Amino acid sequence: MTEISTIGVVGFGVMGAAIGMNAAMSGYRVVFKELNDELVKTMFDRWIVSPLNKRIEKGKMDQAQMDQVVSMISGTSHYEDLAECDLVIEAAVENMDLKVQIFDDLSKVCRKDTILASNTSTFLIEKVMTKATHPERTAGLHYFFPANVNRLVEVIRQKATNDDTYDALMGFAEKNRKTAITVKDFPGFAINPIFISSYMVLDSFYNGKQYNAATLEDISQKALGVRFGIMWVQNGSGLGTCYHAAVSMYDYLGHSEIGYPGVPSQLINQFEGGKPWDLTDGEVLQDEALRKAVADRLLGTIFAISTHLIENDVVSIKDLELGVCTSLAWPKGPFSLMNEMGMAEAARLVKTVVEAGDFKMPKKFSGDTPEAWAL
Length: 375
Ligand SMILES: NC(=O)c1ccc[n+]([C@@H]2O[C@H](COP(=O)([O-])OP(=O)(O)OC[C@H]3O[C@@H](n4cnc5c(N)ncnc54)[C@H](O)[C@@H]3O)[C@@H](O)[C@H]2O)c1
Description:
Elements (H helix, E strand, L loop, with lengths): L5 E5 L3 H12 L3 E5 L3 H21 L5 H9 L1 E4 L10 E4 L5 H14 L5 E4 L6 H4 L9 E6 L8 E6 L5 H13 L3 E6 L6 H13 L9 H12 L5 H8 L1 H15 L11 H9 L14 H24 L5 H12 L5 H8 L1 H13 L20
Parallel strand pairs: 1-2, 1-4, 2-3, 4-5, 5-6, 7-8
Antiparallel strand pairs: 6-7
Helix pairs in contact: 1-2, 7-10, 7-12, 8-12, 9-10, 10-11, 12-15, 14-15
């Protein structure tokens, strides 16, 4: 199996820097590339020197340990300096033309056995790699924000990805102390299709009155058994990111055999207003019937898209359960939730979202009450 010891990171922003820091702390040499020398210095100071100094101040690290990590990371503004890398992870801004160009440029300077991976959130890996000259050495490596804390990594095999590339990336994730799941090249991969449709459906109930943000946050907390609900997580991700991701997912899947909810006007308005959801915008609604209407649609959405992901061989049941619990911090994954609630009730909720036009009916739920999931 390919031995990885030096990695390149293209784009040293929020994600790239956290990926680089994580790798350096796990013993990898890291060479990052930024747009120009000024950004190389700014990003190194912002994402490496300053946070490590804070760790020293808090007594979580000593100077020798910091020097060790810093010595593992260097920056450049030239692709040629990535020539020696065994693996290059691209984490530049989410723009298709830019990413295609980056992999074209990397293909010209890297060895033919260098593994090229993208951290894109929304583009198909096959498309991003159109100009990579050795597609069998390409894959997706999708980290979750914040990438040095969130343990999940999706390893995305595109059609051309060979076994050695896949095995090397699984090994790399493990040495970085990450939980890796295997995912097919699919819009949004495995976790985001669930998370994004969840907030789209929840937001569609918002009316600033009985369904205020405080109520929707509370309903999502109770339905999923989480401390931080879906309105809170949207604020953390940024409403801009949430809006663009919703548009992208609808474009990919809205008219497919899977279906996807339309982008709700409430999310568009909130994004255009430039403010996060106000989670203290009034009383939390107590009316059980009105609360249940929302919780049913939320859970039905999660059940429908999760079932479609399995039926389309995007991910295994085991990996999807693990991935959702690891990345979103839900105590139970979608299939455990369905089994516990009972398949007759799960089928009722799926039917609700199919009738609302959010999804097409998954095969599993198209006949009589289906068997429980084999976990
Ligand atoms: N932020 C998240 O929550 C998140 C989560 C998962 C995946 N992603 C994906 O990770 C990627 C990066 O996102 P981010 O939030 O870190 O963005 P960011 O804007 O913080 O960082 C992007 C960096 O790329 C640099 N860059 C742009 N073009 C470049 C080039 N040609 N060469 C070298 N550097 C270049 C920019 O200067 C910038 O520093 C995107 O594809 C995004 O979709 C983001």
